[in-house]
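Pasting as-is:
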Amino acid sequence: MIENPEIKQKEKALLIGVIHGELDEQTVHEHLEELHFLADTAGAEVVGNVTQKLSRINPSFFIGTGKAEQIIKQAKELDVSLIIFDDELSPGQVKNYSNLAKNIKVIDRSALILDIFKQHAQTKEAKTQVELAQLEYMLPRLTRAWTHLERQMGGIGTRAGAGETQIEVDRRLIRTRISKLKRELEKIEKERETQSKRRENQFRVALMGYTNAGKSTLMNAITGADVFVQDQLFATLDTTIRSVELDSAHTILLSDTVGFVRKLPHHLVASFRSTLKEVIKADLILLVLDASSNQVEDHLNTIIDVLKDLEAERHPMLIVLNKIDLERAEKQLGFLKRKYPDGIYVSALNNLRIDKLLKNIAKIMDENFQIVDFQFSYRESKELALAQEGVDVLERSYNDDHVHLKVKGSRWRISQIQSTLDK
């Protein structure tokens, strides 16, 4: 990380993409655009892209040996200190590049994403999760050449914490640290479970989406809260939970989770599993997409893949297409509405059509609601008052010896009222 950008220059980076298998040239260029955004977020200055078409992957350098040597030469000419592959490199390939590149770091997309997470981790839980993912990624790649690069260079891909502070650590010590971090996460998860039990009767809605799709902005629009928002990938890593009263009869717990990108490192998803349990336990998932992006379908598929990994793909879902106020979104709105006819089209930033989204959430909640008749004696005035809170009162009639109520409410709220009457 560049600690003082006014003093130190940004690391110059060269991006490498490979056209291989089902990936055509256009798709690879789209992926490199995202890699460019990731590199910017990490604090690098991207000076160029290089692509190569391959019929098979080279086990030594991923790309052809001649091309690898050419890229290293080009990097030296451009005064580049960092080469980033869009594909994951094997431990052997990382070692080969460290021998070939000498003073130029060669990292892959996973190392870059882990670096960004390291920069953005604020809470103890997030820091623990990221360090665990970094160490599990680094363990098979730990060589003398690797630690030499960490000691001499630092910066993107070798951030302190899983890098400079553990330069001389051997595999045994790393495994010991991994075990300790896993125990810490288990403890944090138990604490989260205890908190979760207090909320288990409430209707949970989880925001989930591609990073930078505007989830936190949408969270603010719905809750009126001041959740941290920045136009940057992975600006927030920690799950934020807020209670939201949609109307007198509909109250939800809304959670905002970490965003996703293509090829998210497996270790990272595994480490953040406890955080993502808010998604697993949700009654409704809002899939937030950027309507101004020309890769909406690709982004949706990435999210669905993560949901499958979490075994949460069968949850009730609403597709929310955000940023409809942007000119790029307006141009493809017709196409999107044909593609996603049940989608909710909003602008979280300008508070456009948020009311329609809330009505749709309430409608889904109603499908889980019950209509029940209650009778209260006139002595039960306190119970009568409580029974009318958090529900829709459909009918109220006063008889000679009792008050009759017909109410509609969530199953847990109806159960609460019934338990009060049974006492």
